[in-house]
Amino acid sequence: LPIPIHLHPSRENVLVAGWGKTVVKGPASSTLQDVELRIVEPQVCSLFPAFDHNLQLCVGHPQSTKSAFKGDSGDPLLCAGGGPGHCLLSTVQCKAPAVFTWISHYRPWINEVLNEN
After folding, report:
1. CA distance 25 to 107
2. pLDDT band for position 5 (50/70/90)?
3. Quick one: which of 11, 9, 31 has its CA closest to 21?
4. Which domain holds residue 101?
5. Taken in order 82, 10, 15, 89, is the CA torsion positive or negative?
6. What 8-state DSSP symbol labels residue 27?
7. Is residue 8 part of a domain?
8. Tally of structural domains, the chain
9. Where does the record place the Peptidase S1 domain (predicted)?
10. What is the sign of the dihedral through the CA atoms of 63, 46, 73 and 111?
11. Cα–Cα separations (whole angstroms), residue 16 to 59, 80, 83
């Protein structure tokens, strides 16, 4: 999966989908949920000590607290416009904003582990 280089903060809409919780003390969703968010400036996620803008993408919504939530870790973030695999990431943080990791960075390691098994 190539790392997209033409993603623009605050202009690129992305879709997060998952079965995570929809309320703090509730169960995981029994139906697939999705929310449209935007790529935001990396500085917004600088409050997360381990955030690395070279390996991760900061995603949120400027007028909403909607985001990935508990139970959504590992769920995909999908970007339009670049064809399949243009923007495929996995969430590692479930707060607003959310942090997603570029899976393509780890693809050699993933392939190595898969080939060993």
Report:
1. 35
2. very low
3. 31
4. 13-116
5. positive
6. P
7. no
8. 1
9. 1-115
10. positive
11. 10, 12, 17
